[in-house]
Amino acid sequence: MKKITNYENKKVLVLGLAKSGVSAAKLLHELGALVTVNDFKQFDQNPEAQDLLTLGIRVVTGGHPIELLDEDFSLIVKNPGIPYTNPLVEKALSMNLPVITEVELAYQIAECPIIGITGTNGKTTTTTMIGLLLNADRKAGTARLAGNIGYPASEVAEEASTADDIVMELSSFQLMGIQTFQPQIAVITNIYEAHLDYHGSRDEYVKAKWAIQNNMKKSDCLVLNWNQKELQELSKKTKAAIIPFSTKEKVAGAYLADGKIYYKEEYIMLATELGVPGSHNIENALAAIAVAKLKNVPTDVIRQTLMIFSGVPHRTQYLGETAGRKFYNDSKATNILATEMALSGFDHSSLILLAGGLDRGNSFDELIPSLKGIKAIVLFGETKDKLYQAAVEAGIKKIKLTENVQTAVGEAYDFSEKNDTILLSPACASWDQYPNFELRGDAFIQAMHQLKDKEK
């Protein structure tokens, strides 16, 4: 990493722990900062804070006392999940105290190029694809995944060498806390309405996403989804070189035409050769191909890598077969749009859908067109009655209400025949029954394995 000295003997407050906060605190401590960590969780229930204390880092736990700001800090490094409406954060900003997120620290110490990926949907799949493509035929160094994908960016940047690339998934929350962050290549997969409870308005959400290119120059490349008019308009407001991708028209980048994928008129592969189904995954692949081409990955390597890519856990993840039934885990589909995208990749006549979850007060009328022709649907959670009405409107004949994901798998199996597909794509958040979408997906996988055991 770069041995920067601008934090030596500076008082820095790390606000909120989790993985990124722990990494930021350790890095700043190593860089000579006088670090105070403040976390809401009580000390006796906070192993991360206990660990930092043993390193000689000051910890304040059990709340976010505003009095901390009397201590003349030079900087706050904020956990992305803590909103800017937090009283301590609001007070800090009113004092003109800089508030950054850990990805800004990562950029400041990184010795290698950074490829940043953001967007409403498809970030993790696209990030994973890019990492695989850049490592597939690599002669020196490694493409290292970082950021919102689960690996603290500052920790990865600390370990990376000049021969590496950092492939960094970035949320809107993280991007609100950047100052100098400048990726060599940036990708915006798409922009839809999301996280309005955090950002307050769609305009603020879009502004946060668009911040990924704030410091980019004409020598940097910005890969944009040309299917979206909004991104086409925004492209006029950047200094970066634009590399478009599209499933609808021929563009000066990556595109789909007559079922074939091209990059600047060079044939890459058939869309049907991609290892993951769905029109959304074609878009993800186009974005990844654009990055791979910019990094000079050979075409045959791109094709071979994407043919065997089977998806990211909980994101239209192919789990294999049980008694001739294919199982797909798309627990990450926590909204209607994500489920619509997943459904676009399957033959509805042989599809059994599992859906339901937290009731956020919305109807499912938008989902009805995507449900038409589905063989059967099994519904669970707080939204099962609302989804039942949508399924009836869509003309689905076989509908079953059940308790949870585990019981839904058994019901779906009873509806199914050999060569059918059973898909978990809930169209809802998990929090009515499961702490997160990962545990919901794990429950689906476990139930599938129990079916397998019965078959033996």
From TrEMBL:
Q: Which residues form the Mur ligase C-terminal domain?
A: 314-428
Give the record's family classification.
Belongs to the MurCDEF family.
Task: Tell me which InterPro entries the record gives.
Answer: Mur-like_cat_sf (IPR036565), Mur_ligase_C (IPR004101), Mur_ligase_C_dom_sf (IPR036615), Mur_ligase_cen (IPR013221), MurD (IPR005762)
Keywords attached to this Swiss-Prot or TrEMBL record, sorted alphabetically, are:
ATP-binding, Cell cycle, Cell division, Cell shape, Cell wall biogenesis/degradation, Cytoplasm, Ligase, Nucleotide-binding, Peptidoglycan synthesis
Q: Which GO terms describe its cellular component?
A: cytoplasm
Describe its function.
Answer: Cell wall formation. Catalyzes the addition of glutamate to the nucleotide precursor UDP-N-acetylmuramoyl-L-alanine (UMA).
Q: Does the keyword Cytoplasm apply?
A: yes
Which GO MF terms are attached to this record? ATP binding; UDP-N-acetylmuramoylalanine-D-glutamate ligase activity
Name the principal localization, coarsely classed: cytoplasm
Q: Which domain of life is it from?
A: Bacteria
- Which Enzyme Commission number(s) are on file for it? 6.3.2.9
Catalytic activity annotated for this protein? Answer: UDP-N-acetyl-alpha-D-muramoyl-L-alanine + D-glutamate + ATP = UDP-N-acetyl-alpha-D-muramoyl-L-alanyl-D-glutamate + ADP + phosphate + H(+)
Q: Gene3D superfamilies given for it? A: Mur ligase, C-terminal domain, Mur-like, catalytic domain, NAD(P)-binding Rossmann-like Domain
Q: What is this protein called?
A: UDP-N-acetylmuramoylalanine--D-glutamate ligase
- Compartments in which it is found: Cytoplasm
One BP term from GO? cell wall organization
Species name: Enterococcus quebecensis
Give all residue intervals belonging to the Mur ligase central domain: 117-292
- Residues holding ATP: 119-125
Q: In which pathway does it act?
A: Cell wall biogenesis; peptidoglycan biosynthesis
